[in-house]
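debug: dumping io for the single-chain case to check the tokenizer round-trip. Nothing else runs in this session.
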Amino acid sequence: MSKIELPAVLETTTPALLLITEAIGVPRNLLASDEEIENAWDSLPRLLKKIPPELRTEGLAKMCVAVSTGLFDSAINYIWNASVIELRDKVKKFGLPVVEQVTDRTNFDESTLLNMKDAELLTLCLKLNLITEDGYFFLDQCRDIRNNFSAAHPVVGQLDDSEFLSFVNRCAKYALGNENNPIGVDLQGFMKALKGGRFEKEQRKLWVKRVKKTHEAQRNLLLITLHGIYCDPDSNEKTRLNALDICSDIQEGFTPKNKEDLIDKHSEYAAKGDDKRHKASQQFFEKLKLLALLDETEWHTLISSTCKKLESVHKSFDNFYNEPPFAERLLELSQQGEIPDTVKHSYVKTVIMCAIGNQWGTSESAYVSYKKMVENFSPSEIQVMLNLPNQGNTVAQRLKTYSRCNNRYIELVKLLDQSSVPTASKAAYRKWISA
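debug: decoded output
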């Protein structure tokens, strides 16, 4: 940014102040001193440099003229007005229809914006994330100073050069020089696009970009809306997939608040007995690999029911062909969080039983998933696995009856990381790897 150089005007303006005050018959010390004027004038270029050239408007020129004559009370009025105009422009760029949706205010148009008090405008800008919390704090102080110490109202005191420069710095930094200007997402347009057919690659990227650029409050609202669309039984599959795609692409930016609200909505479906939406919500969490966020009882139920389905398929006709998708689903679930202690035994037993197969063999396509699950066994799961041969279960029976099952079990034991084997199971581990 080019250097700003103000002209040398103090040699003529400061003597003029003395002549003017003498002519009117008031003391010279009622106005800013020559030293204060000089200090403020010399410091202005550094502060003006913080303001983008396109925002250095008529108001800032008038501010400089006021400073050159020591009228700090008028100067702060000019830069405050420039700040308010810029904040209004930020709101308009954000999108007045979107502001209406976010704030639940009806008929929010440009006239409404112009009629807002400065305090209301600052609060709105904070809510829309157009200014930071720090910015709101300092600009609200500027608003209070402007109301009590500017030429816009009867003043309660005078500003010195340091107070004036601090005022300008805050306006320049938080209102005029702040690039934090997200653009809101038009909910109506967004909903129309979601329901208009499967997103093309570029269309998806565009909406993801818009959702990421909007402020946190609206992004949270959009996330809950997308979750609701996915869980709605009346949503068509293309719309549901569009909603899931957007959530997947913004997932890395999920805040604790986002996750908390999703869990609350999920729990609400369960509390109302809305089984269709509750099941769809589980799928939503699973697709985003967020199942571990659910409470342990629900997590237990998911693992348990999946194990039972896999075991049922495994013991049914043509199991070698039918097992793979059920094994893959159990693998996907196991990768989303720690298996609850309440279902750990059933989980390990099901995986090992299916992995060693029966007298006719193992579903080799499913075996890939079984190996991954065994390799990821925790120490407590390893202990369950190594105890299975000593218990009265299907695994123990097959190991004793069929040599191929026994050999396959040895292969599985060798997949375990020795350092993860609990001390209580070391002997059993050594027995099987040396068999």
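debug: round-trip ok. The radius of gyration is 35 Å.
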